[in-house]
Amino acid sequence: MKTRISPKITAQPTRGLVDEKIYIRVSNLIPNEKITLRCLLLSEDNDFWHAYGLYISDDKGVVNVAEDVCLGGSYTGTEPNGLIWSLKPVPGSRPALRLRKHNVFTPFLLNISVHKGHINGDFKDASSLALTVIERWYISPGVSRVEISENYIHGTLFLPPGPGPFPGILDLWGGGGGLVEYRAALLASHGYASLALEYMSTQNTSINVNNIGIEYFEAAIHFLKSHPRVSSEQVGIFGLSFGTSVALNIAAKGNRISPRCLVCISGSHAVKINGTIGDVFTNLKEEGGKIMVDENNHFIWKELILPRLADPSKKVKVGNIKCPLLLIAGNDDQNWPTVDSARDMENMMKAAGNEHLLTTLIYPKTGHLIEPPYSPHTRFSNFISAFNQEKVVVLWGGQPKEHSFAQEDSWEKILHFLYHHLYSSSIGLSKL
């Protein structure tokens, strides 16, 4: 009687950036054997997340995740990275969680295991036939992290290795506030000096929403432009949600600190910043726009801003923008009226004759939280507003597979856009 050779699982790369595709292969299986692949992750908040897929080996006893069809589980179809983007909290976890990276100098550890047969979600008594661990990083070797708390600016500057100068990016997140570093670290890993700016804080009274106006963001751009390792003429802005509104406000002013280009995700131009950020949120609240809830009491905020699109006085004059703009939205965004805003911006810029500067990407069945590729889709999660500290569960929208595609596709286009308008243009300038 032959002794069975133990199954072998390989995953490449075993250590890589979060935006790299993974390639998983299981060999030494019995031909046409049913197996379950599982990914298990322990978050920095001490919550377990998992995903699993059901496969059948080929006539050589091999499963190649990049080529073979997943028959069921957390995802279906041919999905090389399905075991990552379909991650969800394990049954029994705390409700309404969102997976985010806090410390960029440690990786997410993905435990990939092989199990006999097709298992439908309950892994309590399932022993593994093989196991491997993958490290997923937001920062590459040599990228440095510099805390910034000077000249009114609070944030973190991530610098690529080498003397530079590098193109710069001001990285702006949204209304949840705090200092969010992981996207800036990833951008620095792609060669950009990236400043993750904190501009809404419950801890630091000097950057409270009631004393931060547009001047604060202009000072941050000036800081980047003045840094010895940043190319002063090649600084762009990357905004998500409220960060998009900030970026549009800055670019429309058209002064000497104007950005070279903008990447704007899931935001709107119907938010003008004339005073402080606190004034903006107060005005939105006082206008009495609709705040809706679904059958699960999840908050839907898109109707809060939607009426402003009919009032020119409420909107940023995007016709004044003189730099290239990449605008990204999901048509199932339940948090902001991003598609309506995108169409209105297209009309405004066309009327002003600068529509050639605008590139719009609208993704079907995609929600608000369009993040770097393979980030697990979050349809709803707990949210604490930096404005009033109200804790609610917010409906972000989107469907897992389509949202995942949007994240992967948009990130590739974002990197191409940034390279074209920051790196390529700087190369051109150096030859003049």
UniProtKB/TrEMBL annotation:
Xref: Pfam families: BAAT_C, Bile_Hydr_Trans
Taxonomic lineage: Eukaryota, Metazoa, Chordata, Craniata, Vertebrata
Name of the molecule in the record: Acyl-coenzyme A thioesterase 4-like
Acyl-CoA thioester hydrolase/bile acid-CoA amino acid N-acetyltransferase domain span: 19-150
SUPFAM superfamilies: alpha/beta-Hydrolases
Active site: 241 (charge relay system), 333 (charge relay system), 368 (charge relay system)
Residue intervals of the BAAT/Acyl-CoA thioester hydrolase C-terminal domain: 213-423
Gene3D superfamilies (alphabetical): Acyl-CoA thioester hydrolase/BAAT N-terminal domain (2.60.40.2240), alpha/beta hydrolase (3.40.50.1820)
Gene that specifies this protein: LOC114659417
Species, as recorded: Erpetoichthys calabaricus (Rope fish)
